[in-house]
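Backbone-to-sequence.
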């Protein structure tokens, strides 16, 4: 079974992914795959630099510079997504050729990147905005304004709810959400 896990940044997708990993599932973190490709695929990096001059220095992507450009400009964000989605999907497909018994594709752009079509079930993880802002500030060491801009640049929780087969709302403690994830996996008969 392949689960597509999506939702905005700071919602708690990692908790669900950790539960799946503990069951022996293969986790395909599309953000991590994207960053790996930035290190290993010079064509991808060159294409980003061509569209967003000054965002690559000494062969490395300057994430803050790129973020400042795309999180406040919808067209720029769409351009970046067009550049990256194809490369990430090709790598995910390559990694799924071994046909794992259980896998989870973690992608904020699960639908936009064409990854949902690879999944048996899609799951949205959502959380209240203020909780997300606080998590991002702590996790990424960023200020409130930058965290809010990152969230505002993403799809709404309603969009994820409407487009996914299931939705898990992370509005309690981390332990509560972990228990909710396990109950959900039992519901799907992934665990007994």
């Amino acid at each position: 079974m392949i689960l597509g896990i999506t939702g905005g940044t700071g919602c708690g997708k990692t908790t669900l992914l950790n539960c799946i990993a503990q069951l022996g599932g293969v986790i395909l973190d599309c953000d991590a795959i994207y960053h790996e490709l930035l290190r290993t695929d010079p064509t991808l990096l060159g294409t980003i630099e061509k569209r967003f001059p000054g965002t690559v220095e000494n062969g490395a992507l300057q994430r803050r510079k790129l973020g400042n450009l795309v999180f406040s400009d919808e067209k720029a964000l769409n351009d970046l997504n067009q550049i990256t989605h194809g490369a990430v999907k090709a790598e995910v497909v390559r990694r799924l050729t071994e046909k794992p018994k259980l896998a989870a594709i973690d992608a904020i752009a699960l639908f936009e990147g064409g990854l949902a079509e690879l999944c048996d079930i899609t799951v949205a993880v959502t959380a209240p905005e203020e909780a997300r802002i606080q998590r991002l500030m702590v996790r990424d060491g960023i200020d409130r304004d930058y965290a809010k801009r990152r969230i505002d640049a993403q799809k709404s929780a309603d969009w994820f709810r409407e487009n996914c087969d299931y939705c898990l709302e992370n509005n309690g403690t981390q332990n509560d959400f972990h228990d909710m994830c396990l109950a959900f996996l039992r519901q799907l008969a992934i665990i007994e």
